[in-house]
């Protein structure tokens, strides 16, 4: 088994095991997050009706549904069959597919947008260039990427969450390094937002949100 196969298997197993607990705990993850709602609104305005958007690593589909409510032609993709079962149950009018972000069954340039909302956090740093290259491949010229992740050095290791016999590392990154990797993959960075931690359990470290575009920056806007 390769390193990539190993982390994909571990991630799939973890989320299959905790799917129902996770979906209940994060039933409305944007309810008390006005900044995040605002950023998603900006993203929806940038993409508009340019074409389909993929919510990669969609989990139980809450962010996918929010993007759809903003008028985007969006579908979700996730490794976990159990997560997708919940997403389809909760959002029967939306499309959800199973797959890996590292090997998307999508044609080159077929998307107007890619959202990776805390879904790159299990990808080892050595695999990030390949991940961002895949994002770049499936985006049409001028397509928009929104990348969200936690900021920091030390990973968070969750062991036996909700009493389930699984463990997984949640990796934290530095926005500057992620911006460098996106640039190396052919993206133009549009904006960088960091929300400082609030001291609570739901946000113990800063959160970063990067907007990037495939190709050169336009004369105005992101």
UniProtKB/TrEMBL annotation:
<protein>
    <submittedName>
        <fullName>Methyltransferase</fullName>
    </submittedName>
</protein>
<dbReference type="InterPro" id="IPR050508">
    <property type="entry name" value="Methyltransf_Superfamily"/>
</dbReference>
<feature type="domain" description="Methyltransferase">
    <location>
        <begin position="53"/>
        <end position="143"/>
    </location>
</feature>
<dbReference type="GO" id="GO:0008168">
    <property type="term" value="F:methyltransferase activity"/>
</dbReference>
<keyword id="KW-0808">Transferase</keyword>
<dbReference type="InterPro" id="IPR029063">
    <property type="entry name" value="SAM-dependent_MTases_sf"/>
</dbReference>
<dbReference type="GO" id="GO:0032259">
    <property type="term" value="P:methylation"/>
</dbReference>
<dbReference type="InterPro" id="IPR041698">
    <property type="entry name" value="Methyltransf_25"/>
</dbReference>
<dbReference type="Pfam" id="PF13649">
    <property type="entry name" value="Methyltransf_25"/>
</dbReference>
<keyword id="KW-0489">Methyltransferase</keyword>
């Amino acid at each position: 088994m390769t390193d990539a196969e190993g982390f994909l298997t571990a991630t799939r197993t973890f989320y299959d095991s905790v799917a129902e607990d996770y979906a209940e705990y994060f039933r409305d993850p944007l309810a008390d997050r006005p900044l995040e709602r605002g950023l998603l609104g900006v993203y929806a305005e940038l993409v508009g009706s340019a074409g389909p958007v993929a919510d990669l690593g969609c989990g139980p589909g809450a962010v996918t549904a929010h993007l759809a409510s903003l008028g985007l032609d969006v579908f979700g993709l996730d490794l976990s069959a159990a997560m997708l079962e919940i997403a389809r149950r909760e959002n029967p009018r939306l499309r959800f597919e199973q797959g890996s972000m590292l090997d998307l069954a999508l044609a080159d340039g077929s998307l107007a947008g890619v959202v990776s909302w805390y879904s790159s956090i299990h990808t080892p740093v050595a695999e990030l260039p390949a991940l961002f290259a895949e994002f770049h491949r499936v985006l049409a010229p001028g397509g928009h990427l929104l990348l969200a992740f936690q900021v920091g050095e030390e990973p968070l290791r969750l062991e036996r969450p909700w009493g389930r016999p699984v463990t997984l590392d949640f990796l934290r990154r530095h926005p500057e390094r992620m911006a460098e990797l996106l640039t190396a993959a052919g993206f133009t960075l549009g904006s960088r937002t960091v929300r400082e931690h609030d001291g609570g359990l739901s946000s113990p470290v800063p959160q970063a949100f990067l907007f990037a575009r495939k190709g050169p920056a336009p004369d105005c806007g992101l």
